[in-house]
Each structure stands twice: as structure tokens, then as C-alpha cells.
Amino acid sequence: MRPFTPPVLAVVVAFLTTAAPAAAAGDPAVAAVQLQLLQRGLYRGPLDGIRGPATEHAVRVAQRRAGLAADGVVGPQTRRALRLRPFGSRLLRAGARGTDVLELQFALAEHGFPSGVFDGMFGGHTRRALRHFQRFAGLAVDGAAGPATLRVLQMPPPRIPFTLARPLDAPVSDGFGPRGLRFHGGLDLPAPSGTGVAAAAPGRVSYAGWRAGGWGRLVVVAHRDGVRSLYAHLSRIDVRLGQRVQAGFQLGLVGATGDATGPHLHFEVRVRGAAVDPVPALAPP
After folding, report:
1. Which of 6, 74, 198, 253 has minimal Cβ neighbours within 10 Å of its Cβ?
2. In the chain, what are the domains?
3. How far apart are CA 97 and CA 102, in angstroms?
4. CA 146, 149, 151, 154 torsion: positive or negative?
């Protein structure tokens, strides 16, 4: 058995002082407003569904341009000026487009099923993500978003049902959530190449090898309760398929394989296939 190799002290200190908190959940309706403002050149912030000063300022500018009272409130007149279609006002299926489709894409991502770019167009990626979510939620898998699907999407996203050990003592450089016009389904933890990466919980190695699609060298560990943890961009893999591991067991080494601009660990956790923010489940440092 290969013990976990702790990283250098400087990296440990960096994590203790700069660990990122869990990201606030965004509102799909606010994300739809942000996209419309972005397309009009009025908003330059992130498409995160969080109503902050930049979003409110852009709403006021849009209202002034439309000859409305610039109160920053997205009421009926502002909704019409921004061409916002109410989420849930129609059955959404392949070929649909509009801000309600953007809300669907955003809600699917927050529930662990990203569909690629937030663009408000119901194409193949959105349909696949929707079908995966419907299967996850025990709904009819028809690839169309009707009242039953929308009702479940209004419920809280799944959570990890047990505590996770930290796979790497390093700062979070990129957290779980919206990133540009896409959704980042895990945590990026930068560290020097060769730093040891540890299993976050006991389980069995269900994948160990090269994975296309930007993952590079990847290890996946299956845990209890339908939870799987993923460790990507490794420079070396130290476990084999089917091997049982305990929390803290070294799975491999940090690298920059696959789609990576520098050495870091992409750490992702899925609950029955849904990508879930790992931060609330991580043990305190």
C-alpha cells in the first residue's frame, strides 16, 4: 500500500488561508436577465444568476433606454422590453429557443446536469442533459420539459450525504458553478506537478486510465449511496481498476494532462450521476 504523500508546507498554508467557501446558488430567472443584458452590451459580469450591483446597474440602463422608470426592478414592462419569456409558460422541447430555455439550462446545471453553453437554444446537448436529469429524478424520460420536470427543478439540488476528506491541500482556484457562459462541475486545485492526490472517502476504483474529452489521466472512485469522486489531469495513476481504497490513500499525482493550462487537480463529485458542489461536504482543514 502506498501512503499518501503530503504536499509542501507552502501549499498547505495557502489552502488554510485561502480556501474558497461554497458558491451561492444562482437564480435561473436572474441568469436569463443577465444573458439579455449581455447580448445588448449592457452587462459584462458573470452569468451566475446572482443579482449584484453590476446586474442592477445594467437593468437600470436598459430601462432608461426603453423609456421606463429606472428603478432596477424587473417588472412586467421591463420583462417585455428585455423579451423575457416566463419559465414554465410552455412545454420546452428540441428546437425551442428563448430566455425560458436559458432558465432550463441554468436550472439543469445547478442540479448537476450541465448542457454546454448557456445560449437559450434547445439543441442536442440540452436534450441529453434533460433526459439524464429526468432519469435521475424518476420522471418520464421524454426529453421535454413540462410541469413535472419544472416542478422538480424548483427543488434544492442533491447534496453529498457524508463528509469527504480533502483530496489535496491546495487553494481552490476555480469553484463549482457558472464560469463564463458554461458551468464548471467541480473544483480546480492548483499544486506542483507530482503532488500526491488522495481518495476523499473509502470506496472502489471504478475507472483508472486516460479519458478523452479533456479529462486526461483520470481516476474515479465509487463510494456508498451512489456517490462517485473524480480526479482528473493526473500525471501518474497509482491505483488499478477494482482496487479498494480508504480515505487518504494516494490515487496518483497532480499533473496537467488533458485539457489543462497548468498543473492542477480537477476534483468532481457526482451523486447518482449529478455533479454536486463538494465544498459543503469537505471536512474542515
Report:
1. 6
2. 22-84 (1.10.101.10), 88-157 (1.10.101.10), 161-281 (2.70.70.10)
3. 8
4. negative
CA distances (Å), origin 233, targets 80, 215, 260: 46, 6, 7
- As a whole number, mean pLDDT of residues 116-120 equals 94
> What is the pLDDT at residue 17?
27
Report pLDDT digits (tens) over 151-188: 999 999 999 999 999 999 998 999 999 998 999 999 99
Q: Strand, helix or coil at 144?
A: coil
Contacts of 28 (CB under 8 A, 6+ apart): 49, 87, 102, 103, 104, 106, 107, 110
Q: For residue range 126-149, list pLDDT tens digits in order.
A: 999 999 999 999 999 999 999 999
pLDDT digits (tens, 9 = 90+) for 6-18: 332 222 222 222 3
Angle at CA of residue 107, ends 101 and 108, nearest 5°: 90
The arithmetic mean of pLDDT across residues 36-51, rounded, is: 93
Q: What are the DSSP calls for 87-107, one per residue? A: TTSS-B-TT-BSHHHHHHHHH
Residue 141, CB-side half-sphere exposure with 13 Å CA sphere: 9
Report whether 219 contacts 237 (CB < 8 A): yes
DSSP string, 43-75: --S---S---HHHHHHHHHHHHHTTS---S---
- Given a contact cutoff of 8 angstroms between Cβ atoms, the answer to whether 213 and 185 are in contact is no
How many CA within 13 A on the CB side of residue 157?
25
108: β partners? none
